[in-house]
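#lab-general

N.A. 3:47 PM
ok so I finally got the sequence cleaned up, no stray characters, all 200 residues accounted for. can someone with queue access submit it? mine expired

B.Y. 3:52 PM
send it over

N.A. 3:53 PM
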Amino acid sequence: MPGPTIDLTIYENEEALLAGLRRRDPDACACLIKRFAPLVYAQAMRLLGDADEAEGVLQQTFIKACDKLDTYEGRGGLGSWLYRIATNEALMHLRQRAPRIDLNDVAETIQTDEMPQRLTPWTFDPATAALNSELRTMLEQALAVLPETLRVVFVLRDIQGLSTEETATVLGLGESAVKVRLHRARLRLRELLSAYMQEH
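B.Y. 4:20 PM
back already:
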């Protein structure tokens, strides 16, 4: 049974929505979720690669956002604020996975059998994939295939734009480990997307 229809036109822009949230309007949080849920869910999926966990991050992100609205300073817009909350929530999930995958317990050298086998010349930069919806879809699918340790570094560095130092701090890694993992992630993505790039 479908849920209730949420009228996003109640708030004509983000500033009006923020004012509604601060007044604790009954519909404000619902509008916030409706407007930004796709962005939050996509980021959670990029980092976690698991639909159930991404759904959990989605819920926690909006619970925290509505609960901690007084801490929002207005810099960068609501979308950027929610994106940061979602990223932090997803990273907490990754740390809780430690018994399965320890982010610090991975060999940082590139193994021969991990080297891409089909490297075709192309001028595509994965970080610009968002400019093309079809290419973005292909990138999301390729990211889902990457091992967690590589995917997280790629998302933080090449999609979110964190520096090597910031990424290392967030993940509790050395900067050299971040550089190696990013290199491995880019090589693997290049291989995964090579067939698509040859056709376009």
